[in-house]
């Protein structure tokens, strides 16, 4: 099976040459080099997520921007970049470790020492204490988490600084602080007769280090999509209700699975007074959901599942819990990337799987398990825009800079933020080690 990038190149070429294409992609601009967007952003003075699933999301003005990639990397052919990356990697040896996220393009993942989800990768880096540089081929919050968990001597590098996460950017520290202030005014700070405080903040791993630190400071905790249920149970033991950010869908799907009624899950829109709620509905709430979402997982819908069931009777539909509730309800099961991978690995008979998660991961699973039929529920090729900003050209650049003794694109989390973020991460590990 060809990579997502190769498929996009083919579709756009066919479209240009014949006006028709065998397949479709959400944006023909995906076929270009990401440096075009870095330049376009610089000229427009406005940050953007680039083409792909989150292209319609509004990037906050403080979003990091990537300076221009030196021309030699833009002009280099795939073959030349391959030779240069392998040579730099061989020269650096154990001094550098490359991490590749499940949603990263194959052209980059092929050089990774570890492949996994964000938390697996941050932990994998810990097994390489001698590595002076951790090159995170993922997005900004992942590099921050790796910096929090790594030693101060290790430099975490994000090959393209514009590789953010539109979902993580939907909850900024100021808005969450403001929300917390308003909620504390309504709920007070006193525990109930069972010793449970009025509210516990829970942040998804897909959030800035500043928000993990906010949770650390305020008796809160971090969760992943693998342990969200355990973490919510932990929070309900200690608090009367939860403020869950930034992903409303993971929050709603998890709380629903614990029996929390939908009417006790108001949504907090940071642009509205009291988040768009009245005081009573907040007082009656069990989980207050931040108005955030992942634009990749938002693309999945019930119609796609119905079509898969019609086309492939007996199909096993598995979706990620960042998908909307109706999609999770209509699927056969829902779980993290790890869950999806394990479910496929566990199938002993040839099975047809329709998967609701990012296309790079689905295609990789399809190649890894040829005994099964595995396809993405979304027929349109639309990768995570920000993850797609990492092109082999950027990887070659950061590696060759390291060989030359220079560290570029280092992600550093402030020491005080690190300490508090670690508290929230340690609470998560203590809730149940993963
Ligand atoms: S897939 Fe969604 S949550 Fe993951 S990095 Fe991309 S935008 Fe963020």
UniProtKB/TrEMBL annotation:
Reaction(s) catalysed (UniProt annotation): iminosuccinate + dihydroxyacetone phosphate = quinolinate + phosphate + 2 H2O + H(+)
Residue segments, region Disordered: 50-70
EC number assigned by the record: 2.5.1.72
Matches recorded under InterPro entries: NadA, NadA_sf, Quinolinate_synth_A_type3
Family label: Belongs to the quinolinate synthase family. Type 3 subfamily.
Cofactor(s) needed for function: [4Fe-4S] cluster
Keyword Iron: yes
Function in brief: Catalyzes the condensation of iminoaspartate with dihydroxyacetone phosphate to form quinolinate.
Pathway: Cofactor biosynthesis; NAD(+) biosynthesis; quinolinate from iminoaspartate: step 1/1
Keyword list, A-Z: 4Fe-4S, Cytoplasm, Iron, Iron-sulfur, Metal-binding, Pyridine nucleotide biosynthesis, Transferase
PANTHER family, per database record: QUINOLINATE SYNTHASE, CHLOROPLASTIC (PTHR30573:SF0), QUINOLINATE SYNTHETASE A (PTHR30573)
Keyword Transmembrane among record annotations: no
Identification of the protein by name: Quinolinate synthase
Subcellular location: Cytoplasm
GO cellular component: cytosol
GO molecular function, one term: quinolinate synthetase A activity
Regions crossing the membrane: none
Binding residues for [4Fe-4S] cluster: 165, 294, 384
Pfam families given in the database record: NadA (PF02445)
One of the GO BP terms on file: 'de novo' NAD+ biosynthetic process from L-aspartate
Broad enzyme group: transferase
Superkingdom to which the source organism belongs: Bacteria
Cofactor note: Binds 1 [4Fe-4S] cluster per subunit.
Binding site for iminosuccinate: 101, 118, 204-206, 225, 320-322, 337
